[in-house]
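Help!! Second protein's tokens look totally different from the first
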Amino acid sequence: MPFAAALSEHPLPTHAAGEVIGTVLEALGEGPELAMTFVTAAHAGALEDIAGAVREVLRPGTLLGVNATSVLGGAREVEERAAVVLWAGRFGAPVTPVRLEAVPTPADTVIAGIPADAGGRVMLVLADPFGFPVDTFLDRAAAPGGFTVVGGLASGAVGPGGNQLLLDRSVHHDGAVGALLPPGVRVTPIVSQGCRPIGDPMIVTRSERNVIFELAGQPALVRLADLVNALSPEDRALAQRGIHIGRVINEGKLDFEAGDFLIRNVVGGDRSVGALAVGDLVEVGSTVQFQVRDAGSADADLRALLGGHGGDGALVFTCNGRGVHLFGQPDHDAKLVESVVPGGAVAGMFCNGELGPIGDRSFLHGFTASVLLFNDP
């Protein structure tokens, strides 16, 4: 098997590093093209030492790492406790290490560090949420000749400068680091946004930037009120806790299902004009559908998207708001992903924002599990 992962909860970083490195080395041997390590706060101060041990013993072609609030490995999620996770993979060709920085210019901001040959490939990205213009980067990735982005925003700090983004022998506290996978690598990206549609899809008939004034010819707020009043008591309670809206990405489809919508929050309403403000730009003619989110919806959505898929390895970037906070029990996302990766080579982190594709371009998400399944090349 060309992929391996290991998790250690030992409180001493030297012991934890030894455990995960030994397990991965036994499974893969030296020299995997890519290794990734994720550590929680208790081991954040030792990240460079852990990385040094990985480089010395495992000798990966490229090494990425990050500190996070919580991590996952195999079928386990370790939330806000000491843990180290190591994942490694062989692809039969080298990956390209990537260091991304935002460079202001008189006209706009340019993202420096994107490899010239990135077109059509998949880039794993670990980004700092403070100051790095993720949307600008994703717009660049979606431009002609662009690439797919999967990854997450670091969650190990509550302010600028506290996150550690490891790339080989360097640790950065801003921007982003990543790895451009070789052409032809067999991967399947899955983005589970954890929502369930309510009501019917509607066409936006009047809007301005992120404000929807009319849906199917009527004030948007009236449409929403009518929908909520017609819901079951259970769904009405969910809608009152938080309503979301899904924008269809591929308007060419006749029927819409999980994975066809980009989910964004409804952030407010204006009764005087019947308008709704949402967390996205919405054009006239777009198809949208209101959504609710709870543990059951999130569980069903991830199960449905994983159904029919399988892999030999997986990287998982799940939201800080999921885990025990959402599901009431540990290990939910890790167990579901591990169930379609029989070898258990699953690893990842809890994020301050998740990166992954919906349709033909990548977006920044929230309350999402972004998964990249790998198949034996």
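Here's the second one for comparison:
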Amino acid sequence: MERTKIVLVTGSSRGLGRGIAVRLADDAAGVAVHYLSRHEEARKTAADVLKRGAQVVIFCADLMEERQAAALVRAVEREFGRIDILVNTVGPMIMKPWDRISGREWISIYKANLLSALSCMKAVLPGMRKRGFGRIINFGYGRVEQLAAFPTIAPYAVAKTGLLILTRTAAVSERSAGITVNMVSPGLIEGGRLPAGANIPEASLGRFEDVAEAVAFLVSEEAGRITGTDIIVAGTWKM
């Protein structure tokens, strides 16, 4: 990736989002770090981005609110002039039996995992279309393409499958505008949320860096012909 690009990574105060923001700082001119409530952690991410040689600004927004998502994109564009790359990492999960999850919780997970990405995508696309270039990365999970039973993460699984359909829909509609839209689907990650009580061999766990490298490839110039795909970064977990 040319070191001229501007990147927005949502949910980048910690965890996977943080790892991606720091990795892309190796190649980008500027990185917008987004957070909702973890300001100090966002500052730490920003400090690490600066060490990699990219400009950085921190932004706060609740992406479950469409207006705030649009305002975030406008704020980043005012600060940096444009957004070339959007990485949507926001994606909380509720782990409990499906019939004990309230309607409000279902809606919350749906909005956070699917509608937040949709709102950010809709906001960045006009600028990307105008410039004839864009990279959008959404996040699934290692089994997102398996239409199976998920008794303890049902809302999350439903939302992520919906996001995959949205990803491929946008990929088709934006192909002539020079914009690619892809999904990256991690498996079990060190430092991430793991199934309660599960005895998981350490060798089965990936690293944030593994996922960040997949993102770095997909947003590169070399990946210009790759769109609508789902790259699973999960080793052989649940294969």
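Reply: Different proteins will give different token patterns, so don't panic. The chain has a mean pLDDT of 90.
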